[in-house]
Each structure stands twice: as C-alpha cells, then as structure tokens.
Design a protein that fits this description.
The protein contains seven helices and ten strands. It is an alpha/beta fold and 225 residues long. The protein has a domain at 3-97 and 164-223: 3-Layer(aba) Sandwich (Rossmann fold), CATH 3.40.50.300. It has a six-stranded mixed β-sheet with strand order 6-7-8-3-9-10, with helices on both faces. Strands 2-1-4-5 form a four-stranded antiparallel β-sheet, with helices on one face. It is globular and about 50 Å long.
Length: 225
C-alpha cells in the first residue's frame, strides 16, 4: 500500500529561547499507509499533541522531516501551510472548538466557504455530512443546545467538509461520557471504511486506542512500540 505519512528523525524542543529547553520529541520516525486508523498512545506529556501539531502544520520540527500525501511540510510557504490545513489535514479537538454564535450547519459550512466553495455547494456538503455523522436534526441548533457527543459529531463533520485526506484527532473522546465516546469511536472507524480518510488519533485511553487498527506508543518523546 501507499506510504501516505512519512516521519523521519523528527525532533522538537520548546523553551530554548528562555534558557529552559524542554524536548518534546526525540528522533521520532514512522510511516503510515493511506486509509488507516492509528492511535498515538502514551501518558500525558509524552509528545502526542506535539506530533499532531506537526502533522497538522500548526508547528514545525527542529530536526527531521514530515511528508504527508507527497508534501514535505517544511518546504511549504505560509500560504501553502494555510491551504494544507484547510484542504488536506482536518483536525478534531477534545473540546470541540465550535463557534458559539453559529448553528451546527453554519459551523460546518464555514470552512467550505473559506476554501472557495459556492454557498449552495457548501450547504449541500454540510447537510450530507451532518446526516453522515448522525446529527442532521441538529443543523439549526447552536452548540449550547447540543450534548457533548452531538457537538463532537458536528466538529467531525466540520473537519471533513473539505474532504481532507488526513484527519487528526486530539483526545476526541476525552470530554465525553463512555456512551458518547464509544459512539464517536465507532463513527471514526466507519469513516475510514466509507470515506477512505486516514486518521491519526492521540489518546491516553486504552479503550479509545482499541478502536484503532494500528498503534504507536510514545514515551518521553520517543516511539517505543
């Protein structure tokens, strides 16, 4: 199968400019195939979120390189990085990050409009995705009117609206109860099978990790499994 994500000897240190460097990642390397669901597991502070930020081009490594879908992220201009985040790598956050003054449908539509879709096309995509993730009835509801599980489903639909090849999930069930969390994990698995998206999910939960089909264990900024 195709090597979709290639991470080579990646290192990242924070705080060096303040004279108190903290190494978040040390020489991390791995490859992921397209259409897979991989869990990044390990205790808090092991480097999971840092690695997701690098894969999402929200930050840059100090050493090594990351290649996603043939794109060397270190070689992208700022404009290209913005486009990468908008079109190639969707992100799902632990605390949803929905815009509180917009309805569920409007939250999903917004990234499509930013990517240049027509209002009609953006609305059609949002309607289809909200149905796919099981919250079509909440299209007109505001975030405060939805449960945590419903908000996370809307956040997943928003991350998928521009048909990204890579979906990055940072503790997507961390703020949900067990029932809602299980439903979200089942949804993520189904998206790999039906949409073909590649998912990388950071989690400290063994139950969440068991939903993935692959696993990378991190400890003190290194891949240990």
């Amino acid at each position: 199968m195709e090597r979709f994500v290639v991470v080579e000897n990646v290192g990242k240190t924070y705080g060096a400019e303040r004279g108190a460097p903290v190494a978040a990642l040390h020489g991390v390397g791995f490859t992921l195939e397209k259409g897979t669901f991989t869990a990044l597991v390990g205790p808090s502070g092991c480097g999971k979120s840092t690695l997701l930020h690098l894969l999402g081009a929200l930050d840059a490594p100090d050493t090594g390189r990351l290649v996603v879908d043939g794109k060397d992220l270190a070689l992208l201009s700022e404009t290209e990085r913005d486009d990468y985040r908008l079109r190639t790598a969707g992100t799902v956050f632990q605390f949803f990050n929905l815009l509180p003054t917009m309805s569920a449908g409007e939250n999903v539509i917004l990234p499509a409009l930013l990517a240049g879709a027509s209002p009609r096309d953006a609305e059609e995509r949002a309607t289809r995705l909200l149905e796919t993730v099981g919250v079509a009835a909440k299209a007109s509801a505001f975030p405060y009117e939805m449960s945590g599980g419903e908000r996370q489903r809307v956040a997943i639909a928003r991350a998928l609206v521009n048909e990204p090849a890579l979906l990055l999930c940072d503790e997507p069930t961390g703020s949900l109860d067990s029932k809602a969390g299980h439903a979200v994990l089942l949804l993520l698995r189904s998206l790999v099978e039906t949409v073909g998206v590649t998912i990388v999910m950071a989690t400290h939960s063994p139950d969440a990790a068991s939903a993935a089909t692959g696993r990378l264990s991190l400890l003190d900024g290194r891949v240990v499994e």
